[in-house]
Amino acid sequence: MGDGESSHHDGFALWDSRVADWNVVDRTPYARDIVRQMAEACGRHGMRLFVYYSQLDWNHPDYFPRGQTGRWAGRPDSGQWSRYLDDMNAQLRELFTDYGPLGGVWFDGEWDRYDADWRLAETYGMIHALQPGALIGSNHHRTPHPGEDFQMFEKDLPGEHTSGFNAGQVVSALPLETAETINDSWGFRLQDRNFKSAAQLIRYLVQAAGRNANFLLNVGPTPLGEIPDASAHRLREIGRWLAVHGESIYGTRGGPLSPRPWGVTTQRGDMVYVHVLEWADRELALPPLGRVRAARLLGGTAPVRYRSTPMGVTLTLPPRAPEVVDQVIALEIAR
C-alpha cells in the first residue's frame, strides 16, 4: 500500500482542490496534481493509495481559536470554526470521490485542539459512505474514537510510552500500527544526520510485527523530491533482509507468545516464527506451542534441533554470527 501526503499542517493541498486555490496546481510553477499522479502510479503497480490529511491548518482563516501551534502564523485572531470544518470535509469529499479507490486516510493534528468539536461522526460517516472499504485512523495519541478502523502509535511500539506522545493511549482491539522515522525528522532536515541504522530499523519492524502491528516507516524527500542517499541505503538494507526473512513478516500476525526479553514471535497458519533478537545462550526454552513437526533456520543451512516436553519446547540454536540482526527459527506446528 502506498502512503501519500495530501495536506500537511500548512494546509497546502497537493491536489487540484476546488475548495481553495491554496494548492499545488494554482500556486506553483509545477502546476500538476501530485495526488492524482500518486493514485495513477499506485494503480499501475497494483497498490492502493492511502492519504495523509492534517486536521490542523496554520493557513486557513477560520482555523480559530488556534491550538498549541500556529500562533506565529500572522493571521488575525478571528474565524468561524464551523466554516473551517465545512471546508475540511469538502476537501476530504474531493479526495474520496475523484481519485479512485483509496486504502484510507491517516489523520493528524487533532492533538492541536483536543478541546474542539471536530464533528468526527460527520467526517468519518461521510468517508465511510463514499468508500466503505476505506480505513480511518488518527494520530491523536489517544484511545481510538468511534468510527476509527485502526489505532496508531507515533514513535512507539504498542503499549510502550517512550516518546512522550502516547502516554494516554490504551491498546485497543483494533488493528494496530506504529510509525517511525529513519532519522529524527518527519520531513527533510539537512542538519539531521542522526540516522537509525538498518539493524535498528529491522529490529523495530520485527518488534512491531510481534506486537501484531503494521510498521509505517517515514521517508522525508529532499526539496527536489529525491530520497536522501542515507535513507535509500537503509531501505535497500531492509529490503535485502526481507528478501530472506520476509515469510516471517508478510501476511503474519503477532505470534502465540507475548514479547519476551529475547524477542518476539509471529505466526501464519501452522507456522510460528521465533525472532531471536537478544540471546547469547545456545538453548532457548519456550512455553508450549503445540506439537512441533519441524524446525528450520531462515537464511541458513545449519540444523535447528528441538526437544519437546509437557513444559514446552527447547530450541538448540545454531551458532550466530555477530552481524546477524535477528535469528529467525521457523516452527511447523501440528494442529
Task: Please describe what this structure looks like.
This protein is an alpha/beta fold and 335 residues long. It folds into two domains: 2-248, Glycosidases (TIM Barrel); 254-334, Immunoglobulin-like (Sandwich), CATH 2.60.40.1180. 22% of the residues lie in helices and 25% in strands. It is built from six helices and 15 strands. Helix 5 (198-210) links the parallel strand 6 (176-181) and strand 7 (213-218). Helix 5 crosses helix 6. The longest helix has 18 residues, at 81-98.
What's this model, at a glance?
Helices cover 22% and strands 25% of the residues. With 335 residues, it is α/β, with parallel strands linked by helices.
